[in-house]
Amino acid sequence: MEEGSQMRGKYVADISSIREAQARINSFIHKTPVLSSESLNAVSGRRLFFKCECFQKGGAFKFRGACNAVFSLDNDQAAKGVVTHSSGNHAAALSLAAKLRGIPAYIVIPKGAPKCKVENVMRYGGQVIWSEATMQSRESVASKVLQETGAVLLHPYNDGRIISGQGTLSLELLEQAPDIDTLIVPISGLFNYSSSAKLSISSFLFLHNLYYRFLFVLIFLIQKEKKINKIVGGGLVSGVALAAKSINPAIRVLAAEPRGANDAAQSKAAGRIITLPETNTIADGLRAFLGDCTWPIVRDLVDDIITVDDKEIIEAMKLCYEILKVVVEPSGAIGLAAVLSDSFKKNPALKNCSNIGIILSGGNVDLGGLWDSFRK
Amino acid sequence: MEEGSQMRGKYVADISSIREAQARINSFIHKTPVLSSESLNAVSGRRLFFKCECFQKGGAFKFRGACNAVFSLDNDQAAKGVVTHSSGNHAAALSLAAKLRGIPAYIVIPKGAPKCKVENVMRYGGQVIWSEATMQSRESVASKVLQETGAVLLHPYNDGRIISGQGTLSLELLEQAPDIDTLIVPISGLFNYSSSAKLSISSFLFLHNLYYRFLFVLIFLIQKEKKINKIVGGGLVSGVALAAKSINPAIRVLAAEPRGANDAAQSKAAGRIITLPETNTIADGLRAFLGDCTWPIVRDLVDDIITVDDKEIIEAMKLCYEILKVVVEPSGAIGLAAVLSDSFKKNPALKNCSNIGIILSGGNVDLGGLWDSFRK
């Protein structure tokens, strides 16, 4: 169990730690708006409330947890800085939180990481420290930084302070839309590698049809995104579930997960943490499976896990752009995908989910990449 | 001067009619959020407040005015329905407002109008009545509908009720962000036809390079949008200026206009309404130049008009997508384009514009068309 994750009651976070987090971070975060759409209500047959965390600082909910963790440190600890070797939205969020506190953030990034990711970290003042691409190298570089600086390692999700920070989203949302009886929260945004990996650069060159070339680029971008998204690891849904169930135990908390990386669904079914070795291998060490802090919360408080396929996620992304006018990343759209999926609509147990809060968790999709990819 | 535009003091609308409109439409409209971004503040060197009217019902501010006009009608008038022969965002907004009041909306649409436009009208329950593409045909079809039904013709901007409705945006925004000292409002979203018209379908077929094909499709989509956008005609800026100047006469109201259709800037310079015949011809009768209701307000209350070119608008659109995570149409992004333009930055008179409200006026860009265009 990570540092900073002492038990608070049954889990590493509880409603008090979440309320403390809210008081701590309130002046730093954006209170993100809740949008609704009659058209999407009609399509889904429910009332939907979209919590737009894509408008959060850093473009994703991650800033809540990072901010809480950074501002939880005592002055002596804080002065030495913070370290992470996850290089997704958490790294950017941690850099920004550290900048606001005026302390250094050391971000270990593997060589070959997407440029936009590195730029995000640097924009927010994070100090990039390069490692090789393997998890072994990343961990050893991070541990060297820890030794040299005395900084604090902050895990992206398996940490009570992070979970408490993400939980503030629940408090905010349930105040903004008190009628909510169901929450749908992304639990991981990893797409099915095996299907998309069939396409390679050489196959792209042979795709003369413009439509397929376009689709290829789309899938390529989603591939890139995936490495960012898999880092979710249950931190968001854990915090959201803890706060929501504490405020109103009757609220249903559902997690949405891509079918191609359904470790959370498998874990729930098995009653223990299941990791997917093949995904783990290809995702190159961004081992964002449920952690020992998040798993007990997911096991006990998440009522069900809805799995959706890539096609449904892309369709939901389009609806977010076209109807809501909101830019989301694939993992951001997965909650809407879940609510529109057959497995949701046809599930009799979910029939009386009437007022549904959907977390649009982030909007960090590289649209510039879309432009640029066509330029090449 | 149109029906419904009796003078209220000096102009066809005033702060009282705007407050009346607010009370009338408040329960029907979305209170749209105001977003901010440290990154865009840093780029512009000012504090920016983005009023997201792209999240308004119907995807644009137009619903405010349409809703006010429809709910201003007395019961006998209303029962006979409403008519318009402008087929942009106003038509969809009017259909929706009429649906909410439970009265018919007759929308005269020229054959060959973009499919998404027609679908929007139909989705909101408007009755589509086809005309030929000429303005003459549209007017004669509309007048026939008026005779047959006794319905009320509602002009998209040259009407006091419409202007009052759009003005409610000011009241809302200045309450949400009271520090604002400057407002930037789109006055028309028409792009420079002459430059983009050089590209034709045959030239598309000869563009083998993927990037140029992509650019072509982008320009094509903007072309399509243009017909919707030019309908702005000063209704928004008139309402916004009336309300803002009444609340705080020191507030600067700036209009943003594309360089290729700068009739407002030319009119301001000349002191009388200038129409651009060549634009008028190509835009096929969507004669959205300043009307006799909007012109006096623009002449007296708009402090300056910032013109920007297409390249600046596209760049601003990208920033809205990538940084704000908001989907805007070209005319929606023009306010941000203005604030980032050299002509704004280097203008000494605008140096002390510190807290700037930018109206993201609409988000009805046909992203599906982007997908579909590649499919063909």
Q: In terms of topology, how is this protein built?
A:
Two copies of one chain form a homodimer.
Chain A: H1 15-25, E1 34-35, H2 38-44, E2 47-52, H3 62-72, H4 75-79, E3 82-84, H5 89-101, E4 105-110, H6 115-123, E5 127-131, H7 135-149, E6 152-153, H8 160-176, E7 182-186, H9 193-196, H10 201-206, H11 210-229, H12 235-247, E8 252-258, H13 263-270, H14 277-282, H15 294-301, E9 304-308, H16 310-324, H17 330-340, H18 342-345, E10 355-360, H19 367-375
Parallel strand pairs in A: 2-10, 3-4, 3-6, 4-5, 7-8, 7-10, 8-9
Antiparallel strand pairs in A: 1-2
Helix pairs in contact in A: 1-3, 1-8, 3-5, 3-8, 5-6, 8-12, 12-15, 16-17
Description of the structure:
The structure is a homodimer of 376-residue chains. The first copy, chain A, has 376 residues and is of the alpha/beta class. The first copy, chain A, has 2 domains: 22-60 and 160-375, Rossmann fold (3-Layer(aba) Sandwich), CATH 3.40.50; 62-153, Rossmann fold (3-Layer(aba) Sandwich). The first copy, chain A, has helices at residues 15-25, 38-44, 62-72, 75-79, 89-101, 115-123, 135-149, 160-176, 193-196, 201-206, 210-229, 235-247, 263-270, 277-282, 294-301, 310-324, 330-340, 342-345, 367-375; strands spanning 34-35, 47-52, 82-84, 105-110, 127-131, 152-153, 182-186, 252-258, 304-308, 355-360. In chain A, the strands form 2 sheets. Chain A has a 6-stranded mixed beta sheet, sandwiched between helices. Chain A has a 4-stranded parallel beta sheet with strand order 5-4-3-6, sandwiched between helices. In chain A, helix 1 (15-25) crosses helix 3 (62-72) and helix 1 (15-25) crosses helix 8. The first copy, chain A, is globular. Mean pLDDT of chain A is 83; it is low at 189-209, 222-232, 279-287 and 370-376. Chain A binds chain B through residues 30, 33, 35-36, 38-39, 52, 54-55, 57, 59, 123, 210-211, 213-214, 318, 321-322, 324-328, 363, 367-368, 371, 374-376, and chain B through 30, 33, 35-36, 38-39, 52, 54-55, 57, 59, 123, 210-211, 213-214, 318, 321-322, 324-328, 363, 367-368, 371, 374-376. Chains A, B: Keywords: Lyase, Magnesium, Membrane, Pyridoxal phosphate, Transmembrane, Transmembrane helix.
